[in-house]
C-alpha cells in the first residue's frame, strides 16, 4: 500500500512538473513572437563609383560616396571612357549605414554579400569559370568628421557563376547576366558608428587579372545585421536562464553528494550536460556592447558545439544505462563505438569553423569557399561530419529499439511480483518512456519550427497582432532545451525516500532503509542497480 501511494505521488509530481515546464515553454515562444522584432535586418547598398585622384590632390586614401568630403563621382563607365579614366583609377565606395543612420553594438555582427551587375558585350564577353580580383579595404570612425581608421585590407578572388538566357548576338548587347551572390565580408562585432568600404578592381592584362569578367556596370552589397531589439530580448533570456540552470545544477549535485556511493556515469553525464547548457547561457555577450570582441561569433559556435556533443552523448548513455541486460556499462569506455563518431564529427566541424571564422578574425573578407582547395577541404570536413552523424543515429535507433524490446520482455514478469515491487518497476519504465517522449517532442519541435521559419515570410499577422515566427523559433527552441536540461536534473536527481522497514525487507527484497532512486541506473554501494538485479534474476530463471 505504501509503495502504491509513493508511486502515485511520484506520477502526480511528474505531471505537475510537466505542466509547469509546458507553461514556461509557451512563454518562451511568446516572448520571441510578440515582444522581440525579427532577428535580423537586410539593408541593400549600391556602390558609388569614385575617381581616385589622390595622386594629385587627395590627402586621404579613403573615398566617401557622400557627405561634405565626398569623392568625385562617375555616373557610368561610358563617362569614364569618354574622360579617358582608367579602370585602375575607379573605386567603388560604400558607406555603412545609409545617410542619417548609425550602427550600434546591439547589432552584434555584420554579414555582407555581393552582387555584380554584368552586361553582355560582344567584344568583352564573360569567360567561362571567370574569376574576379577585388582589392578591398574596410575602415571605421565614430563621428561624421573624424578620420577614418583602417580595420582590414585584402586582395581577394571570387569565382563568377553567371548565366545568360538570351542568345549572344549584337541584339542582346546591354542585357545583364544572371549572377549568383558572392560572399563578401563577415565581422563579429559592430563596435563603431560608421564604416566605409572601398573596392577596387585592378586590371593587369599581362598577368590576366580581371580580364574576361565582362562589362561590370554596378556593384551591389546586401548588409545583414542582428536587430538591436532582438538582441536585448536575447540577452534578457540568457540573464534569466543562467541562474535558473545554475541553481538546479547545485541542487542536483548536492543530492548526489549526499548519497553513500560515488556518482554513476549517467549522473555525471547529466551534470556535464547542465554545465554545457550553462556555458551557452552565461551572457558574456553583454561585454560585447562595450568591447570590440570580433571573436564572439566563433566563441558562440564553440559553445553550441560543446552542448550538442554533450546532448548526443547523453542520449546514447541514457539508452545504454536502461538496456536492462547483464552488461555493466557504468564507464564511458563502454560507449566508445557510439561516442566515437560524435567526437570525430565535432572535431571536423570545429576545424571547419576555425578555417572559416577563425581566419576572418584577421581578414573579414576571407571565405573558405572562394578557392577550389578551400571548397574541397570544407566539403571533406562536412561530409565526414555528416557520415559520423548518420552512424550516430543508426547506433541510437538500434539502442532505443533494444531498450523497448527489453522493456517489453521484462513487463511480462511484472504480474508475478508483489504489488509494491511491481509498482516500483512500472514507475521506472514509465519514467524512461516519458523522457523518450519528451526527447522526441523536443527534436520534432526543433525541426518543425526550423522548417516553418525557412518557408514563411518571417511573420504572421492575426488582426492587429503580429507574430515574428523567426524570433519565436530562436527564443522558443532556446528556452525548450533549457527546460529539457532542467527537467533532466530535476527528475533524475537521487531520491532519499525509502519505503520503510516492512516494505524494504518484504516486498522489495532490499535492505532496510536502502535509498530508492528516480533513475533506473543508480548503482548502490552494496551492489548493482535494481534493474540489473531484476535482469540477472530473469536470466538465471
From TrEMBL:
Single GO MF descriptor: Wnt-protein binding
Membrane topology classification: Multi-pass membrane protein
Record-linked InterPro entries: WLS-like_TM, WLS_GOLD, Wntless
Signal peptide residue numbers: none
A biological process term (GO) from this entry: Wnt signaling pathway
UniProt cross-references to Pfam families, sorted A to Z: WLS-like_TM (PF06664), WLS_GOLD (PF21883)
Locations listed in the record: Golgi apparatus membrane
Top-rank lineage group of the source organism: Eukaryota
Keywords attached to this entry: Developmental protein, Golgi apparatus, Membrane, Transmembrane, Transmembrane helix, Wnt signaling pathway
Main localization (coarse): Golgi
Domain Wntless GOLD: 48-226
Domain annotation Wntless-like transmembrane: ranges: 227-496
Recorded GO CC terms: Golgi membrane
Keyword Transmembrane helix: yes
Entry similarity comment: Belongs to the wntless family.
Name listed for the protein in its UniProt record: WLS protein
Amino acid at each position: 500500500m505504501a509503495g502504491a501511494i509513493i508511486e502515485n505521488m511520484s506520477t502526480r509530481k511528474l505531471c505537475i512538473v510537466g505542466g509547469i515546464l509546458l507553461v514556461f515553454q509557451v512563454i518562451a515562444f511568446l516572448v520571441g513572437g510578440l515582444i522581440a522584432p525579427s532577428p535580423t535586418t537586410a539593408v541593400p547598398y549600391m556602390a558609388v563609383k569614385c575617381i581616385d585622384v589622390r595622386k594629385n590632390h587627395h590627402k586621404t586614401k579613403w573615398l566617401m560616396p557622400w557627405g561634405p568630403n565626398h569623392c568625385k563621382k562617375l555616373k557610368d563607365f561610358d563617362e569614364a571612357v569618354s574622360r579617358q579614366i582608367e579602370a585602375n583609377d575607379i573605386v567603388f565606395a560604400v558607406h555603412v549605414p545609409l545617410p542619417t543612420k548609425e550602427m550600434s553594438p546591439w547589432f552584434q555582427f555584420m554579414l555582407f554579400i555581393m552582387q555584380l551587375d554584368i552586361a553582355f558585350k560582344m567584344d568583352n564577353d564573360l569567360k567561362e569559370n571567370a574569376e574576379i580580383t577585388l582589392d578591398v579595404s574596410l575602415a571605421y570612425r565614430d563621428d561624421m568628421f573624424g578620420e577614418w581608421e583602417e580595420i582590414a585590407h585584402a586582395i581577394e578572388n571570387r569565382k563568377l557563376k553567371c548565366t545568360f538566357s538570351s542568345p549572344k548576338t549584337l541584339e542582346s548587347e546591354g542585357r545583364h547576366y544572371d549572377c549568383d551572390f558572392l560572399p563578401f565580408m563577415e565581422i563579429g562585432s559592430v563596435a563603431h558608428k560608421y564604416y566605409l568600404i572601398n573596392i577596387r578592381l585592378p586590371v593587369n592584362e599581362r598577368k590576366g587579372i580581371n580580364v574576361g569578367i565582362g562589362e561590370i556596370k554596378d556593384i551591389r552589397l546586401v548588409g545583414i545585421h542582428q536587430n538591436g531589439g532582438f538582441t536585448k530580448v536575447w540577452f534578457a533570456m540568457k540573464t534569466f536562464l543562467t541562474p535558473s540552470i545554475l541553481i538546479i545544477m547545485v541542487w542536483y549535485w548536492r543530492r548526489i553528494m549526499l548519497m553513500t556511493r560515488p556518482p554513476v556515469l549517467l549522473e555525471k553525464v547529466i551534470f556535464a550536460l547542465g554545465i554545457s547548457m550553462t556555458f551557452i547561457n552565461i551572457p558574456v555577450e553583454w561585454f560585447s556592447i562595450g568591447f570590440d570582441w570580433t571573436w564572439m561569433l566563433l566563441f558562440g559556435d564553440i559553445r553550441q558545439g560543446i552542448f550538442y556533443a554533450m546532448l548526443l552523448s547523453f542520449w546514447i548513455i541514457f539508452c545504454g544505462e536502461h538496456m536492462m541486460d547483464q552488461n555493466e556499462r557504468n564507464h564511458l569506455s563502454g560507449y566508445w563505438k557510439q561516442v566515437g563518431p560524435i567526437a570525430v564529427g565535432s572535431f571536423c566541424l570545429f576545424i571547419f569553423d576555425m578555417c572559416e571564422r577563425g581566419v576572418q578574425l584577421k581578414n573579414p573578407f576571407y571565405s573558405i569557399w572562394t578557392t577550389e582547395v578551400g571548397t574541397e577541404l570544407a566539403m571533406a570536413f562536412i561530409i565526414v561530419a555528416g557520415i559520423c552523424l548518420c552512424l550516430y543515429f543508426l547506433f541510437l535507433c538500434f539502442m532505443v529499439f533494444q531498450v523497448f524490446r527489453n522493456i517489453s520482455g521484462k513487463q511480462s514478469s511484472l504480474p508475478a511480483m508483489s504489488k509494491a515491487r511491481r509498482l516500483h518497476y512500472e514507475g521506472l519504465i514509465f519514467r524512461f518512456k516519458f523522457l523518450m517522449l519528451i526527447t522526441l517532442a523536443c527534436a520534432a519541435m526543433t525541426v518543425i519550427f526550423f522548417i516553418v521559419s525557412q518557408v514563411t515570410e518571417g511573420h504572421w499577422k492575426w488582426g492587429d497582432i503580429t507574430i515574428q515566427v523567426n524570433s519565436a523559433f530562436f527564443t522558443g527552441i532556446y528556452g525548450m532545451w533549457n527546460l529539457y536540461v532542467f527537467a533532466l536534473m530535476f527528475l533524475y536527481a537521487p531520491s532519499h525516500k525509502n519505503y520503510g522497514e516492512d516494505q524494504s525487507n518484504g516486498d522489495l527484497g532490499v535492505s532496510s532503509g536502502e535509498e530508492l532512486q528516480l533513475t533506473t541506473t543508480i548503482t548502490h554501494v552494496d551492489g548493482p542497480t535494481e534493474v540489473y538485479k531484476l535482469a540477472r534474476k530473469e536470466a538465471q530463471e
